[in-house]
Amino acid sequence: MACSKIFSGDLPELINEIIQYFQNDTSTLHSCILVNRLWCRLAIPLLWEDPFSIPITKNYHFIEIYLHSLNESDKTKLNEYGIDSNLLFPSSTLFNYPSFIKCLNTYKIIYSIEKWVAIVRNLKTDVQPAIYNLLQNFKSSIKLIYKSLFKIFIENEVDLYTFEVILLASKDHDYFNNVCGLILQNTNFIRNIKNLKLVIFGRNVTLSKIDTFLSLLSSNCKSISTLHFQFNRNEEIFKNFSSHIIKTQQNLKTISFDSPLFHHLLLPLKNYNCSNTLKTVIFYHIDFKNILILKEVFEQLNVLESVHILYCISLNSVFIQQIINITKPFKLRSLFVSGGFQIESFQLLLQKSGDYLENIGFESFTSNEFKQKFLEQITKFCSKIKFFKLNGFDNRAIYPSFDLIKNIGQNLNYLTINFENYYYYFNHLNENHIKLSSTILQELGQILPFKLEYLNLTLIFNISDFELFLNNSQNTFIKKLLIKNKVKESEEILFYIKEYIMKNRRVKYLAFEDEKGRDLACLRDEVMEFKLYDIKIQNYNSLYIQVCDFIKEMY
Prior knowledge:
The relative contact order is 0.05. By secondary structure, the protein is an alpha/beta fold. Helix 24 links the parallel strand 13 (477-485) and strand 14 (507-513). Among the domains are: 1-47; 49-158, no CATH class. It has a 15-stranded parallel sheet, with helices on both faces. The model is unreliable at 123-133 and 423-427 (pLDDT under 50). It comes from Glomus cerebriforme. This is F-box domain-containing protein.
């Protein structure tokens, strides 16, 4: 009876809960639109919360739907740039789509506009004008559309949840400076944001408007829960802003620091508000060489639940001693290494924090001798590893990796073994590399847990070894399986994937890329064949997990 009520539409609140569950599954949400009017009304707002981030290849037509509401004056300006609003824009829309926007990333907005304008111009221009004029018109049209979109969102009084300001190149600064005035005049646009990301680079750009914008953020945004900083200039305006915005937050739960990390950015964490709200701290590509206040800061954080160190450097005895001296538990959840450090000091760190560690990994250029010792210590002190990423390896690293996987057992959920980077960074392809890939395929299948959320293998696939791996891992269900083959025989590999994985429905999502970079997701007939077995073929890069994104999503 309950099911019949749900699917008949008698309980819209339950249907809404169901559809909310598919918030990040765009294909399922598109299917929900076709069920009935109620499902459509519930699914459409979710699809339009952040359309600039949806990875739809060559489909930027949502911009036309937004620009439908432009006034005639702005439409006339677009016509002057070769964009025919009468031909491209819909005459009417079923929903007020701009009102649904929740997330804005300035870099993604520019990228989407550039792609859309390029497509439109190519469709409409038979004879290309002079390169200089094309570039001038192109940039002018981007600038107009960029400002128009912000104007449309502001006029619709959107309730913005996430705002990511990414200013890397001079054009990013130029476009954003052009909309700063709009934002400054309409402070409600940013008043309720919960997630704020600021990445501001550039040495030959004016910061006057950025300064005013940062002041506005500091004085108007009091309910930020997630904050991400990355400034490449040790300017006074950034010092004042970072200090003030951290101190004024009432509910800051997560803060992420990206390189470079300046001393003054950490000091505001000692503020009373942060000490009783901050739960997660992420350090990404940070050089800790001159950071000597870690103990002082972390002693003040009373509810801290996780610390994540991602590809940082200067993890030397000075750094580790600061951590060891902290009287409170140091809940180090993630440690991804881009270089080496003293194993003796590292052992002391694991003795303090090893019970908390859940995610580990290496960059390719980390020495295999260090990897070996590192993995031996991890196996000794850490039994709760869920995420293991091994980039580049030789025999010294691979056998300790097997021991770690065995020791972790069923706790392991995410595993990446990537031969490719070792091949590119350290050597040319030789017999030893082929043997190493064979060793992995021969051994790995029989030590995997019964269930994995994610398995990513980039190897030199020998057919007989690959079949052995598939046979040995038949009892393992893998939600997301990624395979990248670095030599020929990809057609035979696909045959065995179908025989052992597709027909037995052993995965939910599959990505496969061959030695020439050809993606299975581009082969329509293959995609449809796997779909018959309820397996979704996805683009390799789309399914690939970036460590930093994973940490931010999980914590």
